[in-house]
Amino acid sequence: MGDAFIRHIELLGYEKRFFPSQHYVYMFLVKWNDLSEKLVYRRFTEIYEFHKALKEMFPIESGDINMENRIIPHLPAPKWFDGQRSTQSRQGTLAEYCHTLVNLPHKISRCLHVVNFFKVRPDDTNPITDSQIKKPEVFLLPKDAKKNSADITGPIVLQTYRAIANYEKSSRSEMALQAGDMVDVVEKSESGWWFCQLKNKRGWVPAAYLEPMDGPDESEEQEPNYAGEQYIVQKSYTAVEEDELTLKEGDTIEVIHKLLDGWWVIRKNETTGYYPSMYLQKAGEANTSVKSELRNRSAPPRRSTIQNAKSIHKQGRKQISQETYRRNSKRYLQSRSNMKEKFQNKANVIIEKNEREENKPKAQPAVPPRPSKDLILNRCTESTRRKIL
């Protein structure tokens, strides 16, 4: 294979670090010609020094001789003190800079200066830390952020979760875990699969294997909604546990409780049970390629099936039994049925009343008395007066 070169550089966001002192580093996902992807961290002062050296190497392309020939993008100088606000606001400019840099002529974009700067360093994979000092805070660039810094809506603060048990990945897109691993959650999907990062590794992890650092995350879960939301089954599933439901593609059901591990409590007629949320689609909602791709995957493991007595989820979470779901669903359906009967009876009374009103003989209008001769002579026109003379 030939010399290494960079195909694409994507700015993911930045980290606020506290060792050896508080500072900020940008996170870049660098995609190479051998199809590998590496995560690297660079301070803005480093990036600016790299930029100055690049301009010196290519004076014509940097516009030092004639500004009309400049193709190397501009980059603002670091501020005397770079705080979080300037770090955040600079992301759009930096993302645009990297995009332009990679698309410059090969003599610039593939030169050793560029290649070496974005190569993985030892501190990219194992950053120097101190266990006594606060863990770095991660701020991801929003997915829909534009290249212009003015369009960036703000950072996303990543939540740190702990693995409660070992997990072996079953596909390339997933990430293996060891009990006790601390991961940053990048995206929480309703499917029960969460996209996480652990040092330089990223991948999908079952939410059931993760718990927050400070306590159960039940506050993020919605309360049961016994009115139910109508969903359509997009993929058949055969129950494995007693409290699960077996359904066929095309069945219409009602979702009454959305749980974080991706197993929702649903109601089919008067029967309730668990079903993988990734196989459901809200009634009337359009299908997407992402949802179709998710449905081709296996359902994530349920939280209740993971054996770990020390898990926060087993110590403090409010458990709702299937009997409670069934009883409350039955009560709700009964009250809804009674309400329907009440409205139906009321409607019937109104209809009967209207029918009685319609059947009543209508009163005929009274014939007004004929005006007197004097009234006609005083008030009517000449033509009318002639008729009575």
From TrEMBL:
It is found in: Cytoplasm. PROSITE patterns: PX, SH3. Residues 352-361 have a biased composition (Basic and acidic residues). SUPFAM superfamilies: PX domain, SH3-domain. Residues 4-125 form the PX domain. GO terms for biological process: respiratory burst; superoxide anion generation. Its main location: cytoplasm. The keyword Chloroplast does not apply. Residues 156-215, 226-285 form the SH3 domain. It holds the Pfam family SH3_1. Residues 289-325, 351-389 are annotated as: Disordered. The keyword Repeat applies. GO terms for molecular function: phosphatidylinositol binding; superoxide-generating NADPH oxidase activator activity. GO terms for cellular component: cytoplasm; NADPH oxidase complex. Keywords: Cytoplasm, Phosphoprotein, Repeat, SH3 domain. This is NCF1 factor. The lineage of its organism: Eukaryota, Metazoa, Chordata, Craniata, Vertebrata.
